[in-house]
Amino acid sequence: MAWGPQDDDERTALGEAMHALVRRLYPICRSITGDGVRETLRILSEIYPVDVTEVPTGTKAFDWEAPQEWVIRDAYIAGPDGKRIVDFHTHNLHVVNYSVPVRGQFTLEALRPHLFSMPDRPTLIPYRTSYYAPTWGFCLPHALLEALPDQTYEVVIDSELRDGSVTLGEIVIPGETAEEILISTHTCHPSLANDNLSGLVVSLHLARAIAAAPRRYTYRFLYGPGTIGSILWLALNEDKTRNIRHGLVLTGMGDDGPLTYKRSRLGDKTIDRAAQHVLETSGAAANFMDYYPYGYDERQFCSPGFDLPVGRLSRTPHGEYPEYHTSGDTPDFLKPDAMVRSFEAALAIFDVLERDRIVVSNNPKGEPRLGKRGLYRQVAGQANAKPDELALLWILAYADGRHSLLDIAVRAKTPFARIEAAARVLEAHDLVTSGPIATGDAP
């Protein structure tokens, strides 16, 4: 299925377009609520329309509720001469996200409990939040913190917490069936390029590519703040979860580390096998991890009450690269080619899900005679057998109505595309009959 770029020129152009979009979105101060998220979704909608839902403050969602909206206008620490030493307008990581308002004079001793740095990375600004515990603070390079003189500082955080809404974005691309593939990515991080502007940009380009091709599944793309966004969506759309057969959370798609797949909670769903098969047969290095209850919104989708078949695709996992959640996570940290390869890997996984099917042999007693159909080498023992001959035999060996093409590809350790192409040959010669996998991984 020709969803992605078809040659190197198209791949280069796609990587440049993705990187340009990351650069445009990077300066925006996002949070779990607020105009930064709205502006981000508006810009994404210029490329492919995103439907926006505003969930009012106080809306109940299981054990949670939609929080108040955070408004930030200014934040700084200034010395006695009025010169700003730490300035939100220089870098929006400088203020602890969701800081309550403060204005006053503070000695260095009184200010220190509200200052956050990283001694092990002294030149970088850390990213810190306080969404659900009202407090305030500033983040700064440790080298700057250590150099602050013992004096009185003017401290201002011009912010506001008020009733508003949580902004959720959604794209639904109908397919031939109502069965869905869910793709989720978080919108809440401010100026952090890999985590997770790369996920947003790759996701959006996936939506545009998928919409341009025929498809069996319906695709649902979700854009919302981490944790509270997915919980709100699940609470408001519980009936829709019954159609979700497979899902991926996308994050950290742009660094130069190998692709990493985190399995769903039960670990044996079709999405888990498809993702592992695609990455293992890609020819590139890849890592795999079992589910664990820390990370991104796979935790909410896989929670026992839903138990949706949702895994997570990233490159280097969160916390395992020094730029993670720091001012070092800039657009320059991202590799356009890495974003393209992440995009192509996700498409390859979806392609397997789209084309996977059950096969049943029409000649199940012994092997059918392939030679008379021109599907088998004419002289036994030749080294130069037809390229798909072994794939044909693998399919015929397991065409019992109980194995799908993905099952056979995994068993044969053969790329799915080769097995699927062989299946089409056998179908054309009326040697097997194919049927859809009717239920997928129903919740």
Describe the fold and architecture.
This protein has 443 residues and is an alpha/beta fold. Helices cover 30% and strands 23% of the residues. The protein is built from twelve helices and 19 strands. It has helices at residues 8-25, 35-45, 108-111, 142-147, 193-211, 228-236, 270-280, 298-301, 336-355, 389-398, 405-412, 416-428; strands at 51-56, 60-61, 64-65, 69-78, 84-87, 102-107, 115-116, 138-139, 152-162, 165-173, 180-186, 218-224, 244-250, 259-262, 286-289, 310-314, 358-361, 400-404, 432-435.
Key features of this structure:
single chain; 443 residues; alpha/beta; eight-stranded mixed β-sheet; four-stranded antiparallel β-sheet; 19 strands; elongated
Q: Kindly state the percentage of residues in helix.
A: 25-40%
Low-confidence stretches: 378-382
What's the pLDDT, averaged over the residues?
94
The 3D shape can be described as elongated
* Beta-strand content bin: 15-25%
Report the strand count: 19
- Major β-sheet strand ordering: 1-10-12-11-13-16-14-15
From the alpha carbons, calculate the radius of gyration and give it in angstroms. Answer: 26 Å
Termini separation comes to: 27 Å
* Number of separate helices: 12
- Helix/strand-derived category reads alpha/beta
